[in-house]
Write a structure and sequence with these properties.
This protein is an alpha+beta fold. The protein has a single domain, classed as YefM-like fold (3-Layer(aba) Sandwich), CATH 3.40.1620. The protein contains three helices and three strands. The longest helix has 22 residues, at 46-67. The protein starts with 5 loop residues before the first strand and ends with a helix.
Length: 87
């Protein structure tokens, strides 16, 4: 289900930052900070940030494989270690 992100203003953060931070931490939903009616930054739960970074890393790796800049390694860690010892 598509939901629109919660928004707040920079001024509201100045006034009630603790309440906003606690809401993000509890709900794990990001809050978009608006300035002059334009999105400026996003406050996001740290665990969610880690998940997003991990996904980004996977996507970048897939793109590198598609471009031939990296190769997909198959096998166990022991197999990979033996292969690395050869080269």
């Amino acid at each position: 289900m598509l939901t629109f992100p919660k928004t707040t203003s920079a001024r509201e953060i100045q006034r009630n930052y603790r309440k906003i931070f606690d809401r993000v931490k509890k709900t794990k939903e990001p809050v978009v900070v608006m300035r002059n009616n334009k999105p400026e930054v996003v406050i996001v739960n740290y665990k969610k940030l880690e998940e997003m970074e991990a996904l980004d890393s996977v996507f970048r790796s897939v793109e590198q494989i598609k471009k031939g800049e990296a190769k997909l390694l198959k096998g166990s860690l022991v197999d990979l270690w033996h292969e690395a010892q050869k080269g």
